[in-house]
TrEMBL record, chain A:
This is Protein RMD5 homolog. Residues 21-48 form a coiled coil. Keywords: Coiled coil, Cytoplasm, Metal-binding, Zinc, Zinc-finger. GO terms for biological process: proteasome-mediated ubiquitin-dependent protein catabolic process.
TrEMBL record, chain B:
Residues 1-45 are annotated as: Disordered. Keywords: Cytoplasm, Metal-binding, Zinc, Zinc-finger. Residues 336-409 form the RING-Gid-type domain. Residues 188-245 form the CTLH domain. This is Protein MAEA homolog. PROSITE patterns: CTLH, LISH, ZF_RING_GID. The keyword Zinc applies. GO terms for cellular component: cytoplasm; GID complex; nucleus. Residues 12-34 have a biased composition (Low complexity).
Length: 386, 424
């Protein structure tokens, strides 16, 4: 079933609704017309025997209204509308999962922790006003929003870069030069290179040369090729666009620089590049469908589920969610733990410790590797650290 | 697709690195940073993600149905009144002038109804539009704009959270700044807001009106909300020592519920014998202000049920599932990568009581490059048992004359001392 089917069903609903509306209006008009014609008759029959005529007109009106039967006519179209509405509702329940809370465990969540997560998420996503508003509404102390100040700084730097102004970024880089050097990042070089190119375009050759001598030379030994390329650009001061290095002027370089800076900034802060809330919710979206399917099939196991230590269904998340190495023993299908680590056999295949113990009957005999016909001595197996 | 595992493209090509990653002469540091994660654009996975959006479509639909029902009821009532007005005029003894006046009043009544109907029609159309806008939004999710669609989804989830927690202003601000007013249910929650605020001010009237409005559906779901509201009013009368009125009230409003909820009724009626400052535990609790909070919760539950919403905020549901999916024992170690949400204290706290993730296939991540170690980039074992990817080790060896240093222990070895591991 596709969304188009559902859209069609909804179109039918709106069609019936319009019909019903139209019918109602029609009925109202008819009733009004009858009454108004009765009124006219009453006015015209004013002279001859008024009493008798009024009664007759009224009775005639009553009879006419009965004949039109507005209520039952409206009921007819309303019924058709109700059928269409009901069909649409049933379609929704059939195509979509009507209750995604089936796998929810009723555990109390500390509301302060959650509010903190939300507030920090807003600050990370540059929604500072909303973050502030939220923090004041929920009454968290300012200190809870630890992310505000650093990310404010980050977005200010990024905003400047968007306007091709590298000053804030260079200041930040020099203030954190130690930490950046320690982490082995080359963002400082990238920033200076970009500034150098900017000077080449707008300044004199001497200025560029001076800048290179001051800021690029420290990187000469580690990034020889890069520096040589930049030095060569000196020959085209002011006309870089006609040089073989015109790609350096591309606007996308600025975008890339901004992205690299964001990455380094977050890294220095001990934060992830993506908002952890975004990542977690995205992972949730991937794991819910198979989990809910399991809940539906294993209806009886609901009680067990509330206390399970591990998810009952294996879920292969996308590459972006794999932060740790997970080794699953091909023999026992169990995940390796500290007590049951992966071991390398002399043939190059890997099993978990307990499987090796079992197969070698506690180190007493040789066994054949399940993958290749190698004879394995359990004692020679080495523990692996991923 | 088998039921027990949702496979993804495990090979690195499915999640192709964007140009933003590793440049040829980069140091180990930038190689360390993970590539900007491209969103899951595989067809079946997207379909499954969309199927989680029942609430998204159902809420405006329920609202739409409700408006249609209310409009129809109004029409029925007025038309019946007009017709019986005619019948009365025909059988009664009106003077000619009276008859004319009577008929004129009926005509103006019809005109009033027609105006009201036009308004009602406009409301219905707006709501139909909203339903359709949401269908369009679901259809618009495709591989191209997926990361933006996902970002919108998170905003929708956050607005839902704000509304459930009654942070209405924040919800409105968030919806406005991202222009997603059509995709969230602020208007529906405004209805709840009135009732909740009244209850918090110890006023049951709006709540009772809401129950009357939704009588048939509440009856179908065997809701006892109305009963509980009436009980509370009774208790308030007893608290004010208005015993005579309390008894009259009970006779009128509580007695009908006696057949189905006798025990509860008896318990509350017994408060007549005790006073509001009673020390008897069973009855003391009934006089506490907490009872009003309980009523608010009950109302919220009935409200969500009626509109096809989950009882818990969407945020909690997705967060819980996501945390479990990411939770491994390694997340709680000190050297857990900062890219993992579970390296953060707040997330660790919430994830504590949750189950761990489960995987059926080994997935190995190189400590140095954070890339997958698979057949294209196989893992290699150092003499000290530590494992890194071939790519990382080859590059290290290239830069250091064939020597490699284990980043975690500092031990040095020759590239030739490494052994390949074969992991399926």
């Amino acid at each position: 079933m596709e969304l188009s089917t559902i859209k069609d069903a909804f179109d039918r609903v709106t069609k019936k609704q319009k019909l019903s509306s139209a019918k109602t209006q029609e009925m109202l008009d008819q009733i009004r017309q009858e009454i108004e014609s009765a009124l006219d008759k009453m006015q015209s029959a004013n002279n001859s025997d008024p009493e008798h005529n009024y009664k007759a007109v009224l009775n005639e009106l009553k009879a006419n209204l009965l004949k039109i039967a507005p209520l039952s006519q409206m009921e007819g179209t309303q019924k058709e509308l109700n059928v269409a509405l009901s069909k649409y509702g049933k379609l929704l329940e059939k195509y979509f999962n009507p209750d995604i809370s089936k796998a929810y465990r009723n555990i109390d969540v500390d509301i302060h922790t959650l509010n903190q997560i939300i507030a920090n998420h807003f600050y990370r996503q540059e929604l500072f006003d909303i973050g502030d508003h939220f923090v004041s509404v929920v009454g968290e102390p300012e200190s809870a929003s630890t992310m505000k100040a650093p990310f404010l700084e980050m977005y200010q730097i990024l905003e400047a870069i968007k306007n091709q102004n590298l000053e804030p970024a260079l200041n930040w880089a020099s203030m954190n030069s130690d930490k950046l050097a320690q982490s082995g990042s080359d963002i400082v070089l990238k920033l200076h290179s970009m500034q150098f190119v900017k000077i080449l375009q707008n300044g004199t050759r001497d200025e560029a040369l001076h800048y290179a001598r001051t800021h690029l030379s420290p990187f000469a030994s580690s990034h020889m090729a890069e520096i040589q390329k930049l030095m060569a650009c000196l020959l085209w001061t002011g006309k870089l666009d006609r040089s073989p290095y015109h790609a350096l002027l591309s606007g996308s370089n600025w975008d890339k620089l901004a992205e690299d800076l964001k990455r380094e900034f977050c890294n220095l802060l001990g934060q992830s590049y993506n908002s952890p809330l975004s990542v977690t919710v995205a992972a949730g979206v991937q794991v819910l469908p198979p989990l809910l399917k399991f809940m539906n099939v294993m209806a009886g196991k609901k009680q067990e589920w509330q206390t399970m230590n591990q998810l009952p269904v294996p879920v292969e998340l996308d590459r972006e969610f794999q932060f740790h190495s997970i080794f699953v023993c091909p023999v026992s299908k169990e995940q390796a733990t500290e007590d049951n680590p992966p071991m390398l056999m002399s043939c190059g295949h890997v099993l978990c410790k307990q499987s090796i113990l079992k197969m070698s009957k506690n180190h007493t005999k040789m066994f054949k590797c399940p993958y290749c016909p190698f004879d394995i001595d359990a004692v020679q197996c080495r523990q692996l650290y991923f | 697709m088998e039921m027990d595992s949702l496979s993804n493209g495990n090979n690195t090509t499915a999640t192709a690195s964007t140009p933003a990653t590793v440049s040829p002469d980069s140091s180990a540091a930038t190689a360390r940073a993970t590539p900007t994660p491209p969103p899951s654009s595989t067809g079946p996975q997207l379909t499954e993600a969309l199927k989680l959006e029942h609430q998204f479509l159902r809420v405006p639909f329920e609202h739409y149905k409700k408006t249609i029902r209310a409009n129809h009821r109004a029409v029925e009532k007025e038309v019946s009144a007009v017709i019986s007005g005619v019948t009365d005029a025909a059988s009664a003894d009106f003077s000619p002038d009276d008859a004319v006046n009577h008929l004129n009043s009926l005509v103006s009544r019809l005109q009033g109804l027609k105006r009201k109907l036009e308004e009602g029609s406009r409301a219905e159309n707006l709501q139909a539009q909203k339903c359709r806008a949401r269908l369009d939004h679901l259809e618009s999710a495709d591989g191209e704009n997926l990361s933006e669609w996902n970002s919108t989804r998170l905003k929708r989830i956050l607005v839902d959270y704000m509304l459930r927690m009654s942070y209405y202003d924040t919800a409105v601000k968030l919806a406005e700044c991202s222009n997603i007013q059509d995709l969230v249910d602020i208007d529906v929650f405004q209805e709840a807001k009135k009732v909740i605020e009244a209850l918090q001010n110890k006023d049951v009237a709006p709540a009772l009106a809401w129950c009357a409005d939704n009588k048939s559906r509440l009856k179908k779901s065997k809701s006892k909300l109305e009963f509980q509201l009436r009980l509370q009013e009774f208790i308030e009368l007893v608290r004010a020592e208005n015993n005579m009125r309390a008894i009259t009230y009970a006779r009128k409003y509580l007695a009908p519920w006696g057949a189905t909820h006798m025990k509860e009724l008896q318990r509350v009626l017994a408060t007549l014998a005790f006073k509001r400052d009673t020390e008897c535990a069973t009855y003391k609790v009934l006089f506490e202000a907490k009872q009003w909070d309980f009523l608010v919760d009950q109302f919220k539950q009935e409200f969500c049920k009626l509109y096809g919403m989950t009882m818990e905020p969407l945020l909690n549901i997705y967060l819980q599932a996501g945390l479990s999916a990411l939770k491994t024992p390694y997340c709680y170690k000190d050297d857990c990568t900062k890219e993992d949400p579970l390296s953060q204290e707040a997330f660790r706290t919430i994830a504590m009581p949750l189950p761990y993730s489960k995987q059926h296939h080994s997935k190995l991540v190189c400590y140095i490059t954070k890339e997958l170690m698979d057949t294209e980039n196989p893992p290699q074992v150092l003499p000290n048992g530590y494992v890194y990817s071939t790519k990382a080790l080859e590059e290290m060896a290239k830069k250091n004359d064939g020597r490699i240093t284990c980043p975690r222990t500092g031990s040095e070895y020759n590239y030739t001392e490494l052994v390949k591991a074969y992991i399926s």
